[in-house]
């Protein structure tokens, strides 16, 4: 396929692998932040092209995976109300709450609809003026511009029946939380290219300087990831700690200024809970005062509801790079895509789902 095959070229991949083997003299532990990168690594066996001294661990880069249990419970409680049309991307419908998921709520009679854009939910609200329409606004900085645009459009249309259940999270504070973990062993990062396409990478430079870790903005194809690892290892071997951009075909230093301006117009930075990780200061987005009337938590009175995470699922340790999916006793037995214990097994970007799909035959051997 044009523009894809060139980034999956076998000979070029092997060349990068040989280069990595030739320069690596010390053990290094590198975290890829994005779940899309995790799936590419496991699917294409990229980790098996690396020197034995270079270990890739999987970070909190799947927005579905890090959406806290209490937000899932709030989504189900709101969706079950008789006058509500609850709209969501499809990947959130199977994320388990305490006893069920949104698909089960839909099966019980709730009006839960899969949409492909938050603007679809705005349209549904305009077509159903006597019903409350809620969009489940989940994601990193990549989905925030579209959700901000939906709020701006709903405001311009004067809609009184549209709101967002917001669970937006931000990548740089999550990297800092990983680095602040007492038993952290991560020495370098592959940053998520699509996030940086929106936001740029200036926010990563203080982290690289403060913690003395290289951060390489990286794409999602095998060549991208191997190049990103090579750039990261090159820095580590030479004692440098800088932000570099492997994904230059898509990422500019300043990002997308119009998208950033839209995010800043609609949202404000707030503390946010991360599933399996806990609350991280300044790591989320919430609606600012001008658009607070579109906040579903306020509208439906769920702001004070809190809930602890279950102890059986080790997704928090996986998301912090402390353990890998096959190390979980429940992996592939009590926890499968059909009967998941946690979101890392449900999400299309979840590390557990990647290992189950591509390496389940090796369960217990990783």
Describe the model:
The protein has 366 residues and is of the alpha/beta class. It has two domains: 123 residues, HypD, alpha/beta domain 1 (Rossmann fold, 3-Layer(aba) Sandwich); 151 residues, Rossmann fold (3-Layer(aba) Sandwich), CATH 3.40.50.11740. The protein is 39% helix and 18% strand. The protein is built from 16 helices and eleven strands. A six-stranded mixed beta sheet has the order 4-3-5-6-11-10, with helices on both faces. A five-stranded parallel beta sheet has the order 2-1-7-8-9. The chain is globular and about 65 Å long. 49% of the residues are buried.
List segments where confidence is low: pLDDT < 50 over at least 5 consecutive residues: none
Radius of gyration: 21 Å
> Count the strands?
11
Average pLDDT works out at 91
The total domain count is: 2
- Supply the CATH architecture of the largest domain: 3-Layer(aba) Sandwich
- How far the N terminus sits from the C terminus, by CA atoms, comes to 32 Å
Structural category is alpha/beta
CATH superfamily of the largest domain: HypD, alpha/beta domain 2
Which strand order spans the largest sheet, edge to edge or round the barrel? Answer: 4-3-5-6-11-10
Helix content: 25-40%
The major beta sheet can be summarized as: 6 strands, mixed
| CATH class membership of the largest domain | Alpha Beta
Helical element count?
16
In what range is the share of β-strand residues?
A: 15-25%
Helix/strand order, N-terminal first? HEHEHHEHEHEHEHEHHEHEHEEHHHH
- Net shape: globular
Instruction: Write the CATH fold name of the largest domain.
Output: Rossmann fold
């Amino acid at each position: 396929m044009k523009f894809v095959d060139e980034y999956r070229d076998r000979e070029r991949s092997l060349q990068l692998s040989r280069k990595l083997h030739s320069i690596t003299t010390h053990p290094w532990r590198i975290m890829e932040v994005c779940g899309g990168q995790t799936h590419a690594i496991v699917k294409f066996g990229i980790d098996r092209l690396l020197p034995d001294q270079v270990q890739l661990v999987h970070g909190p880069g799947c927005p579905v995976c890090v959406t806290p249990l209490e937000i899932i419970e709030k989504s189900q409680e709101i969706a079950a109300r008789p006058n509500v049309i609850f709209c969501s991307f499809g990947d959130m419908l199977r994320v388990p709450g305490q006893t069920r998921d949104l698909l089960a709520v839909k099966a019980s009679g709730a009006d839960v609809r899969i949409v492909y854009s938050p603007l679809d939910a705005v349209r549904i609200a305009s077509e159903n003026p006597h019903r409350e329409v809620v969009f489940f606004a989940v994601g990193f900085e990549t989905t925030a511009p579209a959700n901000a645009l939906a709020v701006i459009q709903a405001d311009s249309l004067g809609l009184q029946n549209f709101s967002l259940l917001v669970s937006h999270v931000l990548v740089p504070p999550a990297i800092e939380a990983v680095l602040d973990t007492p038993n952290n062993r991560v020495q370098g990062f592959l940053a998520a290219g699509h996030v940086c396409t929106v936001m740029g990478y200036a926010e990563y430079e203080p982290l690289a300087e403060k913690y003395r870790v290289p951060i390489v903005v990286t794409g999602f194809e095998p060549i991208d990831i191997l190049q990103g690892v090579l750039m990261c290892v090159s820095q580590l071997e030479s004692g440098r700690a800088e932000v570099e951009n492997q994904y230059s075909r898509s990422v500019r230093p300043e990002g997308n200024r119009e998208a950033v301006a839209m995010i800043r117009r609609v949202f404000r930075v707030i503390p946010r809970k991360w599933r399996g990780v806990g609350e991280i200061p300044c790591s989320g987005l919430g609606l600012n005062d001008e658009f607070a009337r579109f906040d579903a938590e306020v509208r439906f009175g769920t702001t004070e509801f809190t809930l602890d995470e279950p102890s059986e699922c080790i997704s928090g340790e996986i998301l912090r790079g402390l353990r890998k999916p096959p190390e979980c006793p429940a992996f592939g037995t009590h926890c499968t895509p059909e009967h998941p214990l946690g979101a890392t097994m449900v999400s299309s970007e979840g590390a557990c789902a990647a290992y189950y799909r591509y390496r389940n035959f090796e369960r217990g051997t990783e």
